[in-house]
Amino acid sequence: MFTCKQVSHSLSKEDYAKLPPAKRFFLRLHVKLCIFCGKFNRQVMDGQDMCRHFKQHEATNCQVRAGVARGPERRVEGAACRAVGKELKKLKAGAPSKVDCLALARAL
Ligand SMILES: [Zn+2]
After folding, report:
1. How many angstroms separate the alpha carbon of residue 54 from the centre of ligand 1?
2. From the CA of 62, how far away is ligand 1's center (Å)?
3. What is the mean pLDDT of residues 30-49?
4. What are the pLDDT digits (tens) for 49-104?
5. What is the distance in A from the centroid of ligand 1 to the CA of 18?
6. Are residues 77 and 44 in the same domain?
7. How many Cβ atoms from other residues are within 10 Å of residue 7's Cβ?
8. Whose CA is closest to 45, among 3, 14, 23, 20?
9. How many domains does the chain have?
10. Distance 34 CA to ligand 1 centre (A)
11. Are 80 and 108 in contact (CB under 8 A)?
12. Are 39 and 78 part of one and the same domain?
């Protein structure tokens, strides 16, 4: 069985998932049972899990974020298109098509 100091030192040195299976098992056992360092070291292990998971799915996360950013941008384009269309109707220049509106909105 490890001491609290050994467990904390081991967790601070590297990711516990990279440890040999037997050492990882006893480390987890200590963290589960220890009333002194259990809560703190559980949080350290959760943080390591979170960082590892983020690294593994980093590319996917970026694509999801880019997809979210596209939504409001489209809404702004639509609003600009409608505003330009209204102005053109006021000038009685004829009903513009959506493509024309987008070109005008980009030009503005
Ligand atoms: Zn302990």
Report:
1. 28
2. 38
3. 96
4. 999 999 888 878 766 666 655 666 566 666 666 766 676 667 655 554 555 555 55
5. 20
6. no
7. 25
8. 14
9. 2
10. 5
11. yes
12. no
Domain that holds residue 88: 71-107
Cα of 17 vs centre of ligand 1, distance in Å, is 19
Q: Dig out the tokens for 106 from the structure.
A: 């980009």
Beta carbons within 10 angstroms of residue 79's beta carbon: 11
Do 50 and 20 share a structural domain? yes
Ligand 1 center–CA 26 separation, angstroms: 11
Are 38 and 82 contained in the same domain? no
